[in-house]
TrEMBL record:
GO terms for molecular function: guanine phosphoribosyltransferase activity; hypoxanthine phosphoribosyltransferase activity; magnesium ion binding; nucleotide binding. GO terms for cellular component: cytosol. This is Hypoxanthine phosphoribosyltransferase. The gene is hpt. InterPro entries: HGPRT, Hxn_phspho_trans, PRTase-like, PRTase_dom. Residues 20-167 form the Phosphoribosyltransferase domain. It comes from Rhizocola hellebori.
Length: 187
């Protein structure tokens, strides 16, 4: 029981299901990248931070290559619940990625607008390869097709929170993923 219980309409992905899927995704990446010297994991802040922490540990446990962690913050939401399509870099990469195998660690792909922009941006910086691991995808919300090599869960086109996903900077610490009750964001 948590402070957020009354705000969650229903749970769609449990903590155990999240843990199992993160492990499964890490094993896939470990297998696909077994012959590379190292990977640069780029976490898209803030939403993917929980996923990045768990994924990087699961990747090591799966025998994956050595990783370096990098963080980037972009925004197309502001305080709303849908993407505006206008992307702003809030925090850029701290290093050169030229010649590196980059894996973007993304929490959720909904419209695809932000991720599409981000992939073009990273490719313009001469990475050796750029792939995406997204824990969640909303197939019914996609406006721009984006190449996401690894997807954890396809979820309904509803407003979800938990495991890093937020509404107005709240609910990120919720250990499961749930549908936010519409009364919360229509107040």
């Amino acid at each position: 029981m948590g402070w957020y219980d009354a705000d969650i309409e229903r749970v769609i992905i449990t903590e155990d299901e999240l843990r199992a899927k993160v492990s499964e995704l890490a094993k896939q990446v470990a297998t696909d990248y077994e012959s590379v010297d190292g990977l640069l994991l780029v976490c898209v802040l803030k939403g993917a931070v929980m996923f990045m922490a768990d994924f990087s540990r699961a990747l090591a446990a799966a025998g994956g290559p050595a990783v370096e962690l990098e963080f980037m913050a972009v925004s197309s939401y502001g305080q709303g619940t849908t993407s505006s399509g206008v992307v702003r870099i809030i925090k850029d990469l701290d290093r050169d990625i030229a010649g590196k195998h980059v894996i973007v660690i993304e929490d959720i792909v909904d419209s695809g607008l932000t991720l599409s922009w981000l992939l073009r941006y990273l490719e313009s910086r001469s990475a050796k390869s750029v792939d995406v691991v997204a824990l969640f995808r909303k197939p019914d919300a996609i406006k721009v097709p984006v190449p996401v090599k690894y997807v954890g869960f396809d979820i309904p086109n509803e407003f979800v929170v938990g495991y890093g996903l937020d509404y107005s900077e709240r609910y990120r610490e919720v250990p499961f993923v749930g549908i936010l009750h519409p009364d919360v964001y229509s107040r």
